[in-house]
Amino acid sequence: MSEHEFASLHVPGKPLVLPNVWDVAGARALVAAGFRAVGTTSLGVAASHGLPDGEDATLDETLRLVSRLATLPVLVTADIERGSVAAAVAAAEAGAVGVNVEDAFGDAAVHASLIRDIKRAVPGLFVNARTDTHWLRVGDVGEAVRRMRMYRDAGADGVFVPGVREPGDIARLVAAADVPLNVLAQPGGLTVAELGELGVARISLGSLLFRAALAALVETAMAVRLDNHVRTDLPTYQEVNG
């Protein structure tokens, strides 16, 4: 499996649904369910190690996870948060075919320079350039467009605008991107089919699976304590251990 294969999965109108994982067991289950690619989730990796997210505190844990995921028959892209050239190189050496780097709505020129340097250091790595215009506050589509174009011109292979929800805004971003547009799956938001009709090429699940797992963990423990129904269609011990 290669970087080229990963890039080929980004088809506007037929979006790649990318689940984000924090452990090998979850990744194995997703591979068995037919997913061809997974990403790491910075929140899931951070929280499962008792560390804060968004502060570049989990690179070592992320790299160890990537190296284990790379042994599976699945393409892996790593969330390296704000990132650095060294982090991107290390992710590629660990087996990642792509990285996600976020601007946290800081200086766009600095982020563009980082993208350019990463592409020079690891030309084949799929760089998904995230802008946080819609994540950190009410979105400014014009500013998102400006940043996306800067990152595209710096060599980004795709652009990511988490938090954008309105169909008109998404359509405008697709038209302006000229590279695959990645959005975040949002419960109660647009469906995969609807996002595909707008031209989206990738839909990341972000921290959704991790947060859903936490909810299921508490729900199941409470059900046992209260003598309520516990679902019986769970993976068996033997299946997981195998």
TrEMBL record:
It comes from the Bacteria. InterPro entries: ICL/PEPM (IPR039556), Pyrv/PenolPyrv_kinase-like_dom (IPR015813), Pyrv_kinase-like_dom_sf (IPR040442). It holds the Pfam family PEP_mutase. One of its GO terms (molecular function) is catalytic activity. Coiled coil: none annotated. SUPFAM superfamilies: Phosphoenolpyruvate/pyruvate domain. This is 2-methylisocitrate lyase-like PEP mutase family enzyme. The lineage of its organism: Bacteria, Bacillati, Actinomycetota, Actinomycetes, Micromonosporales.
